[in-house]
Amino acid sequence: MDFSRVQSLVETHGTPTLFLSENRLCESYRRLKTALPGVALYYAVKSNAAIEFVSILKKEGAHFDVCSNGEIDIIRQAGISPDICLNTHPIHRDSDIRYAIDFGIKLFVIDNENEIPKFLPYLDKAEILIRLSIQNPNCLVNLSHKFGVAPELAFDLMRKTADAGLLVKGICFHCGSQNQNALKYLEALEYCRDICRKAALRHIPIDIIDIGGGFPIDYLTPVQPIEEFCAPINDYLDRYFSRYRIIAEPGRVLSGPAMTLATRVIGKSLRSGVWWYYLDEGVYGSFSGKIYDHADYPMFLSRPGQRYDSVLAGPTCDSIDVPYEHVALPQLDIGDLLVFESMGAYTSASASTFNGFTKAKIIVVE
Ligand SMILES: *Cc1c(COP(=O)(O)O)cnc(C)c1O
Fold it and tell me: Last residue of some domain: 255, 275, 304?
């Protein structure tokens, strides 16, 4: 969003504020839809659960990936039908399963055999995807550290699940968030082919392949355009999975670019020769993504001039609340506006009200 546009918006809305561009969100959805033709897109609500995101994506025709009762409540509040939702959390409490099934969700994920008995009371109501672990150590966020069955053990889990009387519908994986290596999807799909072959031999009629999320966006450095990134994945799906229903669970690629943060300098102090600027937003707020998501956001300011080694600190009294250290900045004044782009994914989603500072408000624009 244009800096001057943000400047005029904050005159009305103040700071700290996250501006959600409806156009941008719709554009990202449509681009991904075109880049992955025939793939059902389940928005990963985890990346930004604000009802504004969910409502805009509902209008666009998105489906939804939810992981908790709280996320189900948001979906329900937005008037979304359970038919277009799936639950991708691989570890369930009985109360979570019941809550999701009472809402009407059918499709669940498991990654180990201790989950099987939990679904036995819902034999006719639940359908199961088996989650693979796909290691991607080079990725910004490795989502297979905690979840997923080793691919070579996946068919055994699938067989046990089917033998217990559950309806196994397919396979899912997540090759890491902000994954810049499209070949990781092919590696995962290669494992899926092998598992599908074994399933066919055992007459387990699976028909869903869920390729997860992970699609990358521009932060400080541009990534491959999404059309190019998805091209080899499409080719592979066309060639080997044309008879399957393909699902993806995009989070960041939809929510990330849609939000812009406006924050102001509320104090400044020269400490040991270094300028410290205190902002009205910090790592307990929207900059929580700096810690949990390891993300770095493009920064814009209007003041020209020589730059000095500086620090940008958040508003709370905790010393960890320092979003930027050793950043070269011109001399700022109290009241100066700083704008950060690509602030939609894993930012306000993991923000808290620690120390009594309220979360940045979200304003939908356009
Ligand atoms: C977090 C998550 C996603 C979304 O991942 P992105 O990298 O934001 O696209 C999708 N599926 C599952 C199971 C997740 O945990």
Answer: 255
Given a cut of 80, is residue 136 above it in pLDDT?
Answer: yes
Give CB contacts under 8 A, 24+ apart, made by 48-51. Answer: 48/251, 48/255, 48/259, 48/344, 48/345, 48/346, 48/347, 48/348, 48/349, 49/74, 49/349, 50/20, 50/348, 50/362, 51/77, 51/78
Mutation probe of ligand 1 site: the residue of 45, 65, 141 with most atoms within 8 A of C-beta: 65
- Token pair 């500086």 in the structure block, residue: 310
Residue 51 vs residues 15, 262, 266, 362: alpha-carbon distances, Å: 20, 20, 30, 10
Asked whether residue 229 falls in the same domain as residue 270, the answer is no
Q: Which CATH number goes with the domain that contains 107?
A: 3.20.20.10
Q: How far is the CA of 212 from the centre of ligand 1 (A)?
A: 6
The reply to whether 46 and 146 lie within a common domain is: yes
Determine the residue type at 300.
F
Q: What is the pLDDT of residues 104-131, one digit of tens each?
A: 999 999 999 999 999 999 999 999 999 9
Domain with 61 in it: 22-255
Query: Residues lining ligand 1, judged by CB closer than 6 Å?
Result: 44, 46-47, 65, 88, 143, 174, 177, 212-215, 249-253, 345
Which distant-in-sequence residues (6+ apart) come within 8 Å of 195 by Cβ? 130, 151, 154, 155, 158, 171
Say if residue 232 is in the same domain as residue 272.
no
Q: Which two tokens stand for residue 1?
A: 């969003």
Are 211 and 130 in a shared domain? yes
Average pLDDT, the chain: 97
Residues 10 and 40 reside in one and the same domain: no
Q: How far is the CA of 213 from the centre of ligand 1 (A)?
A: 5
What predicted TM-score, i.e. pTM, was given to this entire model?
A: 0.96
How close is the Cα of 8 to the center of ligand 1, in Å?
34
Question: Contact at 8 Å (CB) between 170 and 206?
Answer: yes
